[in-house]
Design a protein that fits this description.
Layout lengths: L1 E4 L2 E4 L11 H11 L17 E3 L19 E3 L19 E3 L8 H4 L7 E3 L7 H5 L9 E3 L19 E3 L18 E3 L19 E3 L19 E3 L7 E5 L6 E3 L7 E5 L6 E3 L11 E2 L6 E3 L20 E3 L20 E3 L7 H5 L9 E3 L19 E3 L17 E10 L3 E2 L4 E3 L11 E4 L3 E6 L2 E6 L3 E9 L9 E10 L1
Parallel strand pairs: 3-4, 4-5, 5-6, 6-7, 7-8, 8-9, 9-10, 10-11, 11-13, 12-14, 13-15, 14-16, 15-17, 17-18, 18-19, 19-20, 20-21, 21-22, 22-29, 23-29
Antiparallel strand pairs: 1-2, 24-27, 25-28, 26-27, 28-29
Length: 489
């Protein structure tokens, strides 16, 4: 007698113990069923087995699983299974994963009749063998990563696909796809040139297409509901994205982009354009939701006027963009919380152009040309500050608000002087503490007159001293650098 409860079959029959040829399989089943090592797997308790995941367990024989009549999902990634005969009559089995079972033949897969989810990643078959997968027109999930796939023509009839992974293959196109139900495609590391001929992807939400050979984004218009697009490491010289209602995230790093247009994108919140060849980020308009822009290492970038099109911007990364001379567009977004300007060569005057930022908490300006920290007054909420590799000798204005900072590796070059001539300097730690840890690389002295400090060298030539100072709240050096000065006879 059999009864069905919530899709699970319960069979009342005499209980007998199951013998497993593969003890690793038996152990995996016991673990899943919470059986003690001393307990056996029986024809009754195995009916409680609905899901079985056994990754890298050195399993080669599935004999005994034929009794698991209620089994719905199996994942055997990284084993050495050669036969699926024990699974072929399990009518509840819908999800099977045999990734990285290199000796599993396609004919064994084809014995399974009712599956809707299939993972064969890492298994290599001929094009003709892959074509036999066309019988699975009911598939909703298909993973074929790292399979040396040359074509997906066999997917043309799979119009119920919801999720597809085809990463690390040899594909030049995915034109065969024809499922309006697809919400996620992972197709990184192929040789895809265009998605323009892919029909019926109106339901797609997320697309991973990094490391391909895309030359444009003209196909985006057809994916009217896509929200997340990851398309880094392509060959997109000009990127034009306009009028798309639902794009939330665009990642276009390392794609050789020289020109970008972003207009009328009401949902766009994040864009990453790192390591491209942009000269300008100015062709931007109506980006009301944009909160994060990253432009790391666009070494030719000079114009960032497009920042003003993003009034809700909270995070801006300009790191490694030394061509920027006008930082005034950064003054527009009033909600800015994080600003990264490391290795831009930013100067005292340029940082003043950023203006007052009442909500800025993190500022990174390492690798600049700053000689002081007078700008602190522009950012009353600041908590974290990166000042490394500038020209700063006085950090007494840091105050109490900043909880984390570093001002190491300062490089201060003083004007030339004559032998015996004093130079007024200001070498102060936080709260105006004197910096006492001095390493004289050439002989000299620092004298004081009230609050003033004077540096004098004993000999002519190129003179140097190193200094370092540690904040009382830190276990590491907080402030350090080098003074250099040429002294003439």
């Amino acid at each position: 007698m059999s009864v069905h409860t919530k899709g699970v079959l319960h069979t009342f029959a005499a209980e007998s113990m199951i013998y497993f040829e593969d003890k690793n399989l038996e152990s995996a089943i016991k673990t899943t069923l919470n059986l003690a090592e001393s307990e056996g797997v029986s024809t009754l308790n195995i009916l409680n087995l609905t899901h079985l995941r056994a990754l890298d367990k050195d399993i080669s024989d599935l004999s005994g699983l034929e009794y698991a009549e209620n089994l719905q999902l199996v994942t055997f990634t990284g084993n050495d299974i050669t036969s699926l005969e024990p699974l072929k009559n399990l009518n509840h089995l819908y999800s099977v994963g045999f990734a990285y079972n290199s000796n599993l033949k396609m004919e064994e897969i084809l014995k399974l009749e009712h599956i809707t989810e299939l993972d064969l990643s890492g298994n290599e078959y001929s094009d003709e063998e892959f074509d036999q997968l066309e019988k699975y027109s009911e598939l909703t999930v298909l993973w074929l990563n790292s399979c040396q796939l040359n074509s997906i023509s066999f997917m043309s009839g799979m119009n119920k696909l919801v999720q597809l992974q085809i990463q690390n293959n040899n594909l030049t196109n995915i034109d065969a796809l024809n499922s309006s139900r697809l919400i996620g495609i992972w197709a990184t590391n192929n040789r895809i040139v265009s998605l323009k001929n892919v029909a019926n992807l109106s339901g797609l939400k997320r697309l991973w297409i990094d490391n391909n050979q895309l030359i444009s984004l003209d196909w985006l218009d057809k994916m009217e509901n896509v929200s997340h697009v990851y398309a880094s490491n392509n060959k997109i010289e000009k990127a034009v994205i306009s009028g798309h209602q639902y794009i939330y995230l665009l990642q276009l790093d390392e794609s050789n982009i020289t020109e970008i247009e972003l207009t009328n994108l009401p949902s766009l919140m994040q864009i990453s354009l790192n390591y491209n060849r942009l000269a300008s980020f100015s062709q931007a308009a109506n980006l009301p939701a944009l909160q994060s822009v990253s432009l790391i290492e666009n070494t030719e970038l000079t114009n960032i006027e497009g920042i003003s099109a993003a009034p809700k911007l909270v995070r801006l990364v300009l790191q490694g963009c030394p061509g920027i001379t006008d930082f005034s567009p950064v003054s527009s977004p009033e909600q800015l919380v994080q600003l990264f300007c490391n290795n831009t060569g930013i100067t005292d005057e340029q940082i003043r152009d950023i203006g007052f930022k009442s909500k800025l908490i993190l500022l990174a300006v390492a690798g600049g040309k700053l000689s002081n920290i007078d700008f602190i007054s522009q950012f009353p909420a600041i908590k974290q500050l990166a000042l490394m590799d500038n020209r700063i000798s006085d950090i007494s204005q840091l105050g109490d608000n900043i909880s984390r900072y570093s001002a190491t590796d300062q490089k201060i070059t003083l004007d030339d002087v004559a032998i015996g001539e004093k130079t007024e300097i200001s070498l102060k730690g936080r709260y105006s503490q004197r910096v006492e840890n001095i390493e004289w690389l050439t002989e000299g002295s620092i004298s004081t007159d009230g609050d003033k400090q004077f540096l004098t060298w004993a000999e002519s030539g190129d003179n140097k001293l190193n200094f370092s100072w540690q904040d009382n709240n830190s276990t590491e050096i907080s402030f350090s650098g080098t003074f250099s000065q040429t002294v003439h006879k």
